[in-house]
């Protein structure tokens, strides 16, 4: 057995010992308070970024580029893994979680600007992102270096995913949709690992957001107000 698997199983023993009694209330079903759509990046610890240690509290979805849609014969629709808790478990909060220096956004940027290609499975994901990010790439300020351009597009991508959720007829009107960026690279000036709110129900103006949500005003910030 590979050493990594052995180490992971050892850590699972610790997990099982700690969590043994925490499943009592959720063994027969779930009613998570929020669904999060995160990027599948090893640096983004999907539950830990919220300090979550409660089974049943957060329904976590992950894919490269924190995409909320998939392609079907009927066209582009909200992904089933995102939609499931919103229509079947009473979950009324959806959080799109982008992160600084996102590899999927970088790959999409490179595909749109330089025609860079990748393995077919990765290209499939990029092809879903590309139409939504292309207007953002075309609108980027001219004075940005590559790293800043990518981080601007991370916000733009979060905005588009929020928009896709809000415009879908499959998502109940009662669902609150929030967009955030997880920063582990000192981009927003806070502590590494902080989540910064960039979009609430489609609103992206920082001053408006801070006025409307003064209880979290210090956590609201954006790099790009386009």
In terms of topology, how is this protein built?
Blueprint: H1 3-19, E1 34-39, E2 58-63, E3 69-72, E4 75-78, H2 80-88, E5 93-99, H3 103-114, H4 120-139, H5 146-167, E6 176-183, E7 194-200, H6 206-212
Parallel strand pairs: 1-2, 1-5, 5-6
Antiparallel strand pairs: 3-4, 6-7
What percentage of the residues does DSSP assign to strands (E)?
15-25%
How many DSSP H or I helices?
6
The CATH top-level class label: Alpha Beta
Number of domains: 1
Radius of gyration, taken over Cα atoms and rounded to an integer in Å: 18 Å
Biggest sheet record: 5 strands, mixed
Task: Kindly report the CATH topology.
Answer: Beta-carbonic Anhydrase, Chain A
Strand order in space, largest sheet: 2-1-5-6-7
What is the straight-line distance between the termini?
52 Å
- Estimated structural class: alpha/beta
